[in-house]
Amino acid sequence: MTDQNLTLDTHALDSTTVEALQQAIAHRRSLGVARLKPDAVNRYLIEQMLEAANWAPSHGETEPWRFTVFTGDSRIALGEAFAEAYRQDTGEGFQEATFEAQKGRALMSPVWISIGMQPAVKADGSLRMDLEDERVAVGCAVQNLHLVASAQGLAGMWLSKNVFIHPHIAEFVGLTAPAQLMGFFIVGWPNIPWPAGERGPLSEKVRWAE
Ligand SMILES: Cc1cc2nc3c(=O)[nH]c(=O)nc-3n(C[C@H](O)[C@H](O)[C@H](O)COP(=O)(O)O)c2cc1C
Fold first, then answer.
1. Is the pTM of this model over 0.85?
2. pLDDT in tens, 3-39
3. What are the chain's domains?
4. Which protein residues touch ligand 1 with a CB less than 6 Å away?
5. H/E/C letters for each residue in 63-77?
């Protein structure tokens, strides 16, 4: 074995880059649909986000994240699916105006990315890993995606309630049990100055056992 083979390559980044990474993490922000410009987002920028998502860790290397990207006119069918999900959930309380508003909702962000979790299964159909671990891995993937979005100046937000996790929408994006729909990630250019974030003191969350 030569000396060259013994050289350890730690892949450590230089301190300036580490600082930039810390900054990118702290500057990542969630911005809702009202804070997005209607302008389209270049496909390359979305691909960069998805590439980052694909480097997330997963227990057992299951890589359970699944995404469907809706842009342009594909959002019309998505809006119709949101409206149908609303209709299925409301019964007596159904309101035509809300139904119509659901249709328009998908057009309020130029990009919608469905967040799916597809767990790995064994030959006998049982799960290879805990569903919680699979969901956490998807969370890591979304964080990666969001970090790259923010670093590119793009606003985004994870939406995880109501129609965004509805079984009808899960079916619409091709997720069938045991796969789960974990919501949607919206992406667009911000229409407001980039807001500052806020966090409680780290000292309340960390205990050093020395
Ligand atoms: C798993 C997850 C689900 C979320 N779901 C929603 C949601 O349904 N609606 C919403 O307004 N924000 C949602 N958010 C965004 C949070 O509200 C946001 O991250 C939080 O306010 C902190 O702001 P920041 O991301 O700008 O630091 C979600 C975030 C995470 C991690």
1. yes
2. 555 667 778 999 999 999 999 999 999 999 999 999 9
3. 31-70+110-189 (3.40.109.10)
4. 29-30, 32, 157-161, 197
5. CCEEEEEEECCHHHH
